[in-house]
């Protein structure tokens, strides 16, 4: 037992080392793609900054001569390879750049808005678990019945309805018509309900369908027949034996769930005027704020890679079959 554990530990450390080594070129490739794509966005950020300096309807012809000076001050007149090398060297030292719109450090502005996004993501994750787990279990335990068809119908609706449309419908029903919940902003727990439900329900639909399929597969395995032959109650067989194994595919899907939380937060924060990172990025895209867009995508890429690495490691601890195959290899 001891040598096997040592071999498995060495294989785990080697696996983590290889994944971390592969992460470096992946992040470099992502940085190149992001750097190129944001510069394909139509419009000139320096021109947008100049327009923000004048009153609406004012004569802007005199400001056009300052455009070249402003581009030089922002470093936008340099060749793209030089801009990329400068940005990459700044990132390596922990400097994510300076916002073209506000003139403040991008890292400070992201950290200022990050708590609001984390609060929304945590609440949405809780909604997802509360909705997805019961509906997935009910659909698998009562396969082919009316309860199963209802659970599948709700999951299909949740997958099909876009997040912004669901948010507008909830806003109209619970805010405009009933007046139970606030519509915009952040401040009280009531402000969190509609954004969290909007984001959580969209993710719950996919997780519920995955859990139902995994449970149905687990319930068809021979060990379920053995557990029933031992006289265990059906509830114990379902929750203690089948559900534990069915959660493994759901655990693997955690990386995609995190991506859905981050991507969905951009839309939900915009709809509900939630002062988080997502809304900040939407404003940055509208104003062609290159450093903010690049820093956000790079930070989300790092987070996504780290979460998927953590999921892979957790899977090896959760499933003994993975450890045994690793030791034999």
From TrEMBL:
<keyword id="KW-0406">Ion transport</keyword>
<dbReference type="Pfam" id="PF19300">
    <property type="entry name" value="BPD_transp_1_N"/>
</dbReference>
<feature type="transmembrane region" description="Helical">
    <location>
        <begin position="153"/>
        <end position="172"/>
    </location>
</feature>
<dbReference type="InterPro" id="IPR045621">
    <property type="entry name" value="BPD_transp_1_N"/>
</dbReference>
<dbReference type="Pfam" id="PF00528">
    <property type="entry name" value="BPD_transp_1"/>
</dbReference>
<keyword id="KW-0813">Transport</keyword>
<dbReference type="InterPro" id="IPR050045">
    <property type="entry name" value="Opp2B"/>
</dbReference>
<comment type="similarity">
    <text>Belongs to the binding-protein-dependent transport system permease family. OppBC subfamily.</text>
</comment>
<protein>
    <recommendedName>
        <fullName>Nickel import system permease protein NikB</fullName>
    </recommendedName>
</protein>
<dbReference type="InterPro" id="IPR000515">
    <property type="entry name" value="MetI-like"/>
</dbReference>
<keyword id="KW-0533">Nickel</keyword>
<keyword id="KW-0921">Nickel transport</keyword>
<feature type="transmembrane region" description="Helical">
    <location>
        <begin position="20"/>
        <end position="41"/>
    </location>
</feature>
<feature type="transmembrane region" description="Helical">
    <location>
        <begin position="120"/>
        <end position="141"/>
    </location>
</feature>
<keyword id="KW-1133">Transmembrane helix</keyword>
<feature type="transmembrane region" description="Helical">
    <location>
        <begin position="292"/>
        <end position="315"/>
    </location>
</feature>
<comment type="subunit">
    <text>The complex is composed of two ATP-binding proteins (NikD and NikE), two transmembrane proteins (NikB and NikC) and a solute-binding protein (NikA).</text>
</comment>
<feature type="domain" description="ABC transmembrane type-1">
    <location>
        <begin position="114"/>
        <end position="315"/>
    </location>
</feature>
<dbReference type="InterPro" id="IPR035906">
    <property type="entry name" value="MetI-like_sf"/>
</dbReference>
<keyword id="KW-0812">Transmembrane</keyword>
<feature type="transmembrane region" description="Helical">
    <location>
        <begin position="192"/>
        <end position="211"/>
    </location>
</feature>
<keyword id="KW-1003">Cell membrane</keyword>
<feature type="transmembrane region" description="Helical">
    <location>
        <begin position="250"/>
        <end position="272"/>
    </location>
</feature>
<keyword id="KW-0472">Membrane</keyword>
